[in-house]
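Late entry, written up from scratch paper. The run itself happened at the end of the previous shift, but nothing got recorded in the book at the time, so transcribing now.
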Amino acid sequence: MRTVRNAHARVIEAPAERVGALLDRIAADDDPLFPVPAWPPIRFDRPLGVGADGGHGPVRYRVTEYTPGRSLRFDFAPPDDGHHRLYVEPLGPGRCRMVHTLEQRQGPGQALVWALLVRPVHDTVVEELLDNAERAATGRTAARPATRTPRVRLLHRLGYARPVAAPIPASARLARSAFDRPDFTDAWRLPLAPGMARDPRAWRGVLPFTVKAVEGGELLLGEDARHLDFRASLLVDDQGVTLSTVVKTHNALGRLYFGVVRHVHPYMARLMLRRTHRRLALAAPTAGERHWTRETTRR
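Output as recorded:
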């Protein structure tokens, strides 16, 4: 076993009290620090405080220390042995340092996974968190903002969330009323992180079909042909986005054609929804930008 220690720090030209107030909103829907929606958000089973269980993505931990406006410590869930801390150090009336440290006991297998897969992503996420702290506290972009290496971009792509099968939502009225008796239906869903587009028209690029209707949070795409009619509904609600498909065949050719296509359709539907979801997540304003915009609007 060996102990891995990893540290990142950033001097921020803002009072420690202002930066510490950002720390107190970790895991909230308006969390100004964690780099959401590009990365999975931190979520706990209760408000931020000692004893809160949760994590981000596959990383699980518990809050074991919390000094409001000053520091947080998260201990990894067993069998992992370690913790990470995030804290603010005053450096003067209008200056402070935000620090993130990680310590973990690792066996040979963990050490290999850490070196090849975890550390590149960890370092990037922490640096983006510090970028957000600087932007949220000062309104200025970091002089040398974090960049994603080719390896990190590849790992992000491979590890990105995948759609899960779901029923067609009751609120997807356009999909449900498209055909009286459809011959095929399915639906796939992905959660939406804070900061992602809620306007269904932003999801137009999921499939290259004609827009048939827009109603509330639902966009209906489709095409009509002699052998079959096809509709794809994109419903965006507070929790996620759902891609629903309904098909109506008209004759033997339509049944034969879709009998082949239906085996490929689920793969393509998941692929296109996931690809668009990731593109929109990466293009969204950062948590720090969203915070500064909200604060500026309130003034």
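The CA atoms of residues 292 and 298 lie 10 Å apart.
(Scratch paper discarded after transcription.)
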